[in-house]
Amino acid sequence: MSKFYITTAIDYPSASPHMGHAYEKVCADALARWHRLKGEDVFFLTGTDEHGQKIERCAQRAGQKPQEFVDEMSKKFRELCQKLDISNDDFIRTTEERHIKACREIFKRVYDKGDIYKGRYEGLYCVDCECFFSQRDLVGGKCPVHDKEVEHLEEESYFFRMSDYREKVLEHIEKNEDFIQPKRRRGEIANRIKEGVRDLCISRSSFRWGIPLPMDEGHVIFVWFDALINYVSSLSYPTGAKFRKFWPADVHLIGKDILWFHSVIWPSILLAADMELPRSIFVHGFINVGGEKLSKSKGLTVDPLKVANLYGVDALRYFLLREIPFGEDGNFSEEGLVRRTNNDLANDLGNLVNRTLVMVERFAQSTVPSGKQDEELKKLALATVEKVDEALRKLEIGQAIAVIWELVRYANRYIERTAPWSLAEDQGRKGELSKVLYNLLESLRFIAILSFPFIPNGAEKIWGQLGMEEDLCRQKLDKLKSWGGIKPGAKVGNPQPIFPRIGNK
């Protein structure tokens, strides 16, 4: 059985989750669910990054100890996963002993290799993004990410000889076209590397909230060296069976603001530790509201839990996956969410399910009739499976959903074209009626399985109304290699609205 290991960036719990956190998790979840449908052994990781000076300061402002603060905040990110039906296999916290152990071990391994040395750092630092900047990186003298003043920092530090790995990292990026996606991000990083790579400051001695260095406990490991190691500490590096099975990661799904850390710093650490590099890093865009990027530090947030409670989890998931071009920035608005929900989920899919089941109830006593295959509908459904898989191999999530909706809309047109209500009035056309009803039910079986990675709750409801006995979550794409999986004579459920239209709130 092939494996698929996908990760999100671990979230910095300095404040409650916003829509950007929800978006990344929903995208990763859709990919993880799809690969499970393909029969692959999937490991899906998310979690929280809990060390650093910013956390220490946030805890002080809250009147709490750092551990108390992150315990409380990390719980909110777990709740987000649960609410949005995120199917992660693990939730790593960088304050866990398993992570601390792996982090110290990798640090010592790189140190023993001679790639870490002691020196003194003097430069500009943004506490909000826990990142050092050169003067040329600043915009108007401020952090380019948070638009805040940076701090002048001077302290004794340990440094990682990252410059020694510049050529190896650049060579890997240029030889492996899929290593950084989308393609333009690959070009951005390659050009930046060619401008020069400095050694990396990887310890801090001016505060205490971090993992102590194994050889000098007066220093704590810099948060970005610490945080990146979660991708292997969660697998019980270095001896765990999960590490041997799942590493390297197949996809690191991250935001564009942390691409340098993942595409240059992380590969350099892995090379220094004699470990394989991840297979691909996919960079998604930002969620904007009114043209401005969501930001905890700026106070511009949209609470995904409130939105999900108000409009439904599937409505939020569908909007994020369908409306935001994967790899590009996108806008969130409640008006757009309502429009997508009413047009696509309620009108297209919801009506298809309801009309079909009402007709089966009325014309076939809620029993799956025996009917001949409709070759055109069958051909489209089988082709849809291949097209969805092709789109998701390219990480084109929105395109995958669009392909499914082609099948949904075709099935709706099939109803109008065949007019089952007219067939029911003619005793001599009962065979045609049975054929139409059967093929509509079978198309819904396909749609339920194909849509499960994206709108799992709604897909489960469709599956239940079809009267299917097997759990939808146990289905595999093998079940969609042929037409005729829904059995004549089986009973379907009572038709119930799956996606009610959203009115004015």
Layout of helices and strands:
Layout: E1 3-8, H1 19-37, E2 41-48, H2 53-62, H3 66-83, E3 90-93, H4 97-112, E4 116-126, E5 131-133, E6 151-160, H5 166-175, E7 180-181, H6 183-194, E8 200-201, E9 203-204, E10 220-221, H7 223-228, H8 230-233, H9 241-246, E11 251-255, H10 259-272, E12 281-284, E13 287-289, E14 292-293, H11 304-311, H12 313-323, E15 330-331, H13 334-364, H14 375-393, H15 397-418, H16 420-423, H17 430-451, H18 456-465
Parallel strand pairs: 1-2, 1-11, 2-3, 7-12, 11-12, 13-15
Antiparallel strand pairs: 4-5, 4-6, 6-8, 9-10, 13-14
Verbal overview:
With 505 residues, this protein is α/β, with parallel strands linked by helices. The protein has a domain at 333-480: Isoleucyl-tRNA Synthetase, Domain 1 (Orthogonal Bundle). 48% of the residues lie in helices and 13% in strands. It contains 18 helices and 15 strands. The strands form 4 sheets. It has a 6-stranded parallel beta sheet, with helices on both faces. It has a 4-stranded antiparallel beta sheet with strand order 5-4-6-8. A 3-stranded mixed beta sheet has the order 14-13-15, covered by helices on one side. Helix 2 (53-62) packs across helix 3 and helix 12 (313-323) packs across helix 13 (334-364). The longest helix has 31 residues, at 334-364.
